[in-house]
Amino acid sequence: MEFFHPVIGQEKAVELLKQAVAQNRIAPAYLFAGSDGIGRSLTASCFIELIFYNSLPPEKRVEKSAAIKKRIQLRNHPDLLWLEPTYLHNGERISAAEAAEKGVKRKAPPQIRLEQIREVSQFLGRPPLEASRSFVVIEQAESMAEAAANGLLKTLEEPGKATIILIAPAVESLLPTLISRCQRIPFTRLNSAAMEQVLTQTGNQEILQHPEVLALAAGSPGEAIFAWQQLQAIPEEFLNKVRKVPQTLRQALDLARDIDKDLDTEAQLWLADYLQQYYWQEFCHQGMVEKLERAKKLLQKYAQPRLVWEVTFMEMAKSFVA
């Protein structure tokens, strides 16, 4: 059976993982490093499915294969703990999907929290129930606060009969002490043929007719789909307003107010990416791109969004007048 068949354009990563299984040299920790939306989580699911399948007696493998796959996709296999960043809302941790469903106004990006890392330790404190080893997957591992990252260190040193997979955009986005305990699996952005294949297979071929979305995605099908969804969700009138560079300080303040009022932090981060691409294509102005890059970094550090946009647009307006 070909467990990695759904993974497209990541031949090197797939081959490294296949060899680890073939040689029975599964590492206690992996770092799946690469941009968002290029198949890191899908590859992790396929890898875990293969390990769990091999744990079964030969006479049970074909019979149980579909059930294993479904349980992993639903993330309710007893030997799998899958973590993603969360928000705190009324004292309760909720995922990004749950926050969107409940209409929660999100003022800061979600995080992997210390309480979640403690859950990892508790989960790994017992032996695997059905498989040969347990698995923990931590998505957006770069969002771990320092206390959470330090809490994970001890677990990485002594994971027991388990493997931990950290998913992050780049090696340098994590603490060096975490990186040193992981085997790195590199993921690369897809070429145009692979992009077309993924978008067509997922029913998103309409995106192929929009070069500005493909340029923004830069080889990431997931980012292309997310960008397209964002464009559909934002009213055209609002988009036309933010596409215009403020020419006065009053316009800069008004635009910052509207962005803070109408968009949550995740959408604001996407908007900064979009405006970088749009302003560069329209004006070829490096200074605007750099100002928006700084704005993204500040938003990611939980700075007050309205103030970030006010400063960014005011500087642009001053440059425009100059």
TrEMBL record:
Gene3D superfamilies: P-loop containing nucleotide triphosphate hydrolases
InterPro entries: DNA_Rep/Repair_Clamp_Loader, P-loop_NTPase
Source taxon at top rank: Bacteria
A Pfam match: DNA_pol3_delta2
SUPFAM superfamilies with a match to the protein in the record: P-loop containing nucleoside triphosphate hydrolases
UniProt cross-references to NCBIfam families, sorted A to Z: PRK07399.1
Name of the protein in question: DNA polymerase III subunit delta
Taxonomic classification: Bacteria, Bacillati, Cyanobacteriota, Cyanophyceae, Oscillatoriophycideae
